[in-house]
Amino acid sequence: MMKKVLYTVLILFLCSASFAQRNKKPAAKPAAKPAVVQAPVVTAPPVPLEPVSKVNKKIKTPPKDGYSVRADVDSNVMVPYADVREEDVYYAKRIWREIDLRDTINSVLKAENAKLIDILLEAVSNEELTAYSPKDTTAGKLLEDNDSFRIALTAKQASEAARGLTEGGADPTTGKVAEPTLRKLRSDEFLKFRIKEDWILDIKRSIFEPRIIGLAPMKMVEGNWQPVFWIYYDDARELLSKKRLTNPLNDASQLTFDDFFVRRLFSSYIVKETNPANKNIVDILGQTDPKDTRKLYESERIKKSISDYEQSLWEY
Predict the structure, then answer these.
(1) What is the pLDDT of residue 257?
(2) Radius of gyration of the chain, Cα coordinates, nearest whole angstrom
(3) Residue 105: how many other CB atoms lie within 10 Å
(4) Would residue 307 count as lying in a domain?
(5) pLDDT at 141
(6) How many distinct structural domains can be found in the chain?
(7) Residue 163: which of 144, 136, 190 has the closest Cα?
(8) pLDDT at residue 192 above 90?
(9) By residue range, what is the domain housing residue 120?
(10) Residue 68 belongs to a domain
(11) What number of other Cβ atoms are within 10 A of residue 280's Cβ?
């Protein structure tokens, strides 16, 4: 009996194993990779390369050269002149002075970076100022010393007058005389300036004061100092009040060229006063010797006469 049971269990086990073997799913095969088709290689046409321009480096701003950098004074206000009516002028005396830049006190007008002659020539060239001829031909004869502001010069004429002409010499080989030509402009030749001024007594304000009328650069011509052209000073004041003056005593000084003239900081000597013959002191004395002291005595005499007149106006 026991054997039958064992055989029956064994047969059932074998049947179940056979049944499970039949129902077992076969292992899935990996999918085949699709065939890779290589794309044709297309070669791009060569592109010409343009030369690459060099990139300019940014210019570095130069450092500030010190704590007082000299520049034009754009916001400076010139010393105002009081209005003077012609009816209030009780007395007037016209004189002419010369400023010698070789004097130490006047040498600031020929400083290397701020020369008065360069300022005037540049302004005339840019037509900011009008230059007037020192010669007058309106009367039918040539007046070499004239300062009436009658004949205005063009910028070209003023430049030619400042440069001057070379002396025409003869060629030693051919003997042909060369025509005079314009010389190169040299600002160091202008070592003098002439001032025309009026000393006026304003009875309304009870003031006796000078007023500069004209300013003329001078250079040596044929052994004599001659004005090159005249500048009407009132027209030049605005320009000169914006130009700093080199002050050897203070680099931070705000002193301008206009201050130098209006405040009478210059040294000068009188060369002429109003006279019937309209002559300079040298012409009246009839001498040209620079060592002759008579012209200095005459200059001081005129200066003293003006001072004496001022002193005689007031009583104590």
Answers:
(1) 94
(2) 49
(3) 13
(4) no
(5) 47
(6) 1
(7) 190
(8) yes
(9) 87-166+179-276
(10) no
(11) 17
Mean pLDDT of all residues in 295-300: 90
SS3 content of the chain, % helix, strand, coil (to 5): 30, 20, 50
288 token code pair? 């040209």
Lowest average pLDDT, out of 34-38, 79-83, 181-185, 306-310, goes to 34-38
Distance CA 309, CA 316 (A): 15
DSSP-based three-state secondary structure for 226? strand
Instruction: Tell me if residue 316 falls in helix, strand or coil.
Output: coil
The enclosing H or E element of 3 equals helix 2-23
Structure tokens at 247: 């002050």
Across the chain, where does the E strand assignment appear? Answer: 89-100, 110-111, 114-115, 131-132, 152-153, 192-202, 207-221, 224-227, 230-232, 269-273
Stretch 95-112: mean pLDDT: 94
Give CA separation, 285 vs 93, 97, 125, 223, 282, in Å: 21, 17, 38, 18, 5
CA 289 to chain centre: 39
Give 237 or 58, the one with higher predicted confidence. Answer: 237
Instruction: State pTM to two decimals.
Output: 0.71
Backbone angles phi, psi at 263, to 5 degrees: -85, 5
Judged against a pLDDT cut of 90, whether residue 119 lies above it is answered with yes
Question: Which of 251 and 257 is assigned the larger pLDDT?
Answer: 257
pLDDT band at 146 (very low <50, low <70, confident <90, very high): confident
Give the β-pairing of 110-111 and 207-221: unpaired
Whether the CB-CB separation of 98 and 194 falls below 8 Å is answered with yes
Instruction: Return the ∠ at Cα 293 (arms to 287 and 297), rounded to 5°.
Output: 105
Q: How would DSSP label each residue in 49-118? A: PPPPPPPPPPPPPPPP-SSS-----SS--PPPPPP--GGGEEEEEEEEEEEETTSGGGGGGEETTEEHHH
54 domain residue, yes or no: no
Q: Is residue 236 part of a domain?
A: yes
From residue 233, alpha-carbon distances to 194, 196, 304 in Å are 12, 9, 25
